[in-house]
Amino acid sequence: MAVCEQGYLCVVCGGEVEEIADSGLYLRYVLGEVKAEQLDRMPEHHIRCEPSLAQFIVVEGFEPVVVTEGPFAKAGLDPDFVAEEERRVTRGFLRLQELSAKGLSIWEYPLED
Ligand SMILES: [Zn+2]
Known about the structure:
By secondary structure, the chain is an all-alpha fold. It contains three helices and no strands.
């Protein structure tokens, strides 16, 4: 998927993922969980439509996503794991917003570590 292409639909809610900044797939790419060559093959979804990951984004301006039940509910997870995930996922989210806003190449997206 090239940066300029639009029209990818969220597999969760069916709505269009209009901005890379809203893309859960690109967030996972920034986090190093999805490879660049997989981006056009994997299902797209909004960041907010994947609560098990979105719940770890803790930053001003992002309305918190709360998972209240099930194995991925933050309240039931190890506090150290939660703290580390919040650090990791929030950093990736901010990176995605920054790069999206600047219109940089996706090849510059992934975090170093
Ligand atoms: Zn969605």
